[in-house]
Amino acid sequence: MKELRQIAAKLLTDGAVKVVIGWEEGPRGARAAFVTRPEDAERLIFDARCVQNLATYLSPRRRHVVGLGKAAVVAKPCDAKAIAGLIRESQVKREDVVILGVRCGGVVREPTMPASLTAETVADRCGICETREPTLYDHLIGEPQPEPPRVTRREEQIAALMQKTPQERFAFWSQQLERCIRCHACREVCPMCFCEQCVADKTRPVWIESSSHPRANFAWQMTRVMHQAGRCVDCGECERACPVGIPLNLLTRYTAQSVEKRFGHKPSDDPSIAAPIGTFRSDDSQEFIR
Amino acid sequence: MSTRILTKADLAGLVADLLSAGTRVVAPARVDNPQVAAYRPIASFDEARLDGPLPPRSPKEFFLPPTEVLLRWQKKKDGIELQEVATEHPKQVILGARPCDVAAVEILDKVMGWDYRDELWFGRREATTIVSLACRGVDKSCFCTAVGSGPDAQKGADILLVPSDGDAYLAQILTPKGQALVEAHAQRFGEASGAEAAKSFREAATRKVASNLPIEATKLSGWLADNYEHELWKRLAMRCHGCGACAAVCPTCHCFDIVDEPEGIDRGVRRRNWDTCQAGKFTVHASGHNPRGTQNERFRQRVLHKFSIYPKRFGELLCTGCGRCARACPAGMDLPEILGQIAKLAGAGVPTGGTK
Amino acid sequence: MATEETKAFEPKIVAFVCNWCTYTGADLAGTSRLQMSPNVRVVRLPCTGRIDPLFLIKAFERGADGVIVSGCHPADCHYTAGNYHARRRFAVFREIADMMGVDNQRMTFSWVSASEGNKWRDVVNETTERVRNLGPFTEYQSLSRD
């Protein structure tokens, strides 16, 4: 933590960056901090409650953050994958961001929880995460971290769901999406949802209806997940942000599994690796095509 | 009006009576996740969780659904045929709602009946009897006492239940509608007793909440009106995603969008859907210009509407201090924290009493 | 086992096809007077690369019981690579649809060249029979009730 604060303060003192985006202690646990003065670097913290993916704030869609000037951002390995995604897709230039990579031993499910990691408290995604430190960084901070408690509850839920018939799955999602109020929080928090004009906001023609009836909710989630295929970094923010508690990570994670199985692609923090949708191989398997 | 006593057994009986008479009963109830409760129609009293956790969403959707049909249209040979929707609504009782949720409904009556009488809103209002339940205070994000309300506030309720001795509630009958409900089910209500226990419950809850945010938010409107360009707003919403989860869970946020959705080439439906000033698209003009171009401006709007604009027009705050926005925010935006900052700037941080 | 109702059921199928291969192949099937089921409505697009999964969703929303996506064989794309992109896209989309409970048997993906009138007839007939056996897509259609 001391190291992080020192580096942040130095970057600000030297004028190398105008803002350091990290985490601070808020009224309800760890939350994003925007430090612009070297003396405020003392506010920065990093522990297992630093759940939020800060790469979201680098998206050019966030003009109020962009307006602060060049940023340094504290990045866990999964956050670094999202930054790599933004670089890969020409949303951010590598030289325009200073990445303060932090070694990570997993985070808890909610930033309001105590920072102790157990099988019950660890975030689902961390339970299967194999990355302890990012490879995309300008500074790498912290001691080597132990592996988070291994939990596979989400993988088991997905497997159980796939054992069911399509009709049963349809009934499951109908029930879940019944609650959706189409606030689009899942989109707004997502580091990879950076479109200026989302297809869900199109009105001429109306591709995805904005009303929160089940028909529109199905169209919205199917499309959102499709657009995330091979791009989602599994930061879990969509599900965490959902004010009605829809298990959205079952969809994104299943899609990631499919993409990995089919194209051998895993999200990585190497911006030079192309995303699997948007490229192709002439010998891609086509067993489903008549 | 008068006060009666209602035991838990009688409350269960009352719910059974209402359900068998075909009245919809909405209460905080179990959902698939045991840590969570939600306001939803119940099929029996057993499903209700009156002492359970605070439902993450307010019951405003039972007056203003997230999406509702306004009319249907169909092209005919001689023009367009419009089919309106019914504005009469089946009877419902909202049971065990928190005072902060219930107060919001009465606050919203003002805007819903202001320059245009919203018949869908008032149709549901008239069909609904609200039986609220005094709250013991949820957590540190509660600040109802700071907005001039309290965990035992009566506003908006037809009957207020206050936990009393043992398994009984003291029922304060507040409106003719509440009186009618009691008269229709007179055998369920007993002679009032246990007033002392109810009083100490109320005092303990008020003390607990008041220590969270010892300010008077009603006194902020002047400062807010005079400080539109204050430095505070320029940095306020850096971490805000503009996702609008706060508005979705807020009992008083009521902005909506009206859309026409085709159901084929010759017919369609006009719907009204929840919307939020936190969405960038909310204020985009046809020209492409957006008068609230960044999230800082959008968040300022949220604060101003609740604590300056609405009070100026309707004489009361558009906030009941439920704290849901702070609990729901995935980025840690915290309205009570911000109100505290504003109170400090405005010099209105006068403790409201009962606080340390 | 077919009830009276399923006997009477005629599936509605929407085919999204590319202009250069499958549409021309379908045209050939027609001019060759090949017999095929009349349940398929064809929507012509420049290339399978132009077919957004949203088109399939929209078809289901508007009452389709099944969909067909068809274009040029690999290496035959008029625009060089549109069908390769489509292949990846639909490989993933059908799994997402499957996860959400849209039975993959309601979707046919095929390569039909301009000279394959017979193959187009087979794709149409097979898809129609398969969807006929599945019955109407009532789950999806019931999403549209207010």
* Class by SSE composition of chain B: alpha+beta
Radius of gyration of chain A: 19 Å
Number of domains of chain A: 2
User: What's the average pLDDT of chain A?
Assistant: 94
> How are the strands of the largest sheet of chain B arranged?
3-2-6-7-8-9-1-10
Total helical elements of chain A = 9
Apparent shape of chain B = globular
- Binned, the helix content of chain B reads 25-40%
**What percent strand of chain A?**
5-15%
Q: Radius of gyration of chain B from the CA trace?
A: 22 Å
Strand-helix topology:
The complex is a heterotrimer of chains A (290), B (356) and C (146).
Chain A: H1 2-13, E1 19-26, E2 29-35, H2 63-66, E3 71-75, H3 77-88, E4 97-102, E5 139-141, H4 153-163, H5 166-178, H6 185-188, H7 214-228, H8 237-241, H9 248-263
Parallel strand pairs in A: 1-3, 3-4, 4-5
Antiparallel strand pairs in A: 1-2
Chain B: E1 3-7, H1 8-20, E2 24-30, E3 37-41, E4 67-76, E5 79-84, E6 92-97, H2 99-112, H3 119-126, E7 128-133, E8 159-163, E9 168-173, H4 176-184, E10 190-191, H5 195-210, H6 221-226, H7 231-235, H8 245-249, E11 256-262, E12 267-274, H9 295-314, H10 324-328, H11 335-346
Parallel strand pairs in B: 2-6, 6-7, 7-8
Antiparallel strand pairs in B: 1-9, 1-10, 2-3, 4-5, 4-12, 8-9, 11-12
Chain C: H1 4-8, E1 13-18, H2 22-31, E2 40-45, H3 53-61, E3 66-71, H4 82-99, E4 107-111, H5 117-134, H6 138-142
Parallel strand pairs in C: 1-2, 1-3, 3-4
Helix pairs in contact in C: 2-5
Give your account of this protein's structure.
The complex is a heterotrimer of chains A (290), B (356) and C (146). Chain A has 290 residues and is an alpha/beta fold. Chain A has two domains: 2-141, no CATH class; 153-263, no CATH class. Chain A has helices at 2-13, 63-66, 77-88, 153-163, 166-178, 185-188, 214-228, 237-241, 248-263; strands spanning 19-26, 29-35, 71-75, 97-102, 139-141. Chain A has a five-stranded mixed beta sheet with strand order 2-1-3-4-5. The longest helix of chain A is centred in the C-terminal third of the chain and has 16 residues, at 248-263. Chain A is globular. The longest helix of chain B is centred in the C-terminal third of the chain and has 20 residues, at 295-314. Chain B has 356 residues and is α+β, with helices and mostly antiparallel strands. Residues 351-356 of chain B have low confidence and may be disordered. In chain B, a hairpin with a 4-residue loop joins strand 8 (159-163) and strand 9 (168-173). Chain C has six helices and four strands; from the N terminus they run H-E-H-E-H-E-H-E-H-H. Chain C has a four-stranded parallel beta sheet, sandwiched between helices. The longest helix of chain C is centred in the middle third of the chain and has 18 residues, at 82-99. The termini of chain C are far apart. The model of chain C has no long low-confidence stretch (mean pLDDT 93). Classes of the chains: A alpha/beta (290), B alpha+beta (356), C alpha/beta (146). Chain A binds chain B through residues 26-34, 52, 56-57, 61-65, 67-68, 111, 181-185, 187-189, 201, 203, 206, 209-213, 237, 240-245, and chain B through 33, 36, 56-57, 66-67, 140-141, 235, 237-239, 241-245, 247-249, 257, 259, 261-262, 271, 273-274, 276, 279-281, 293-296, 326-328, 330-332, 334, 336-337.
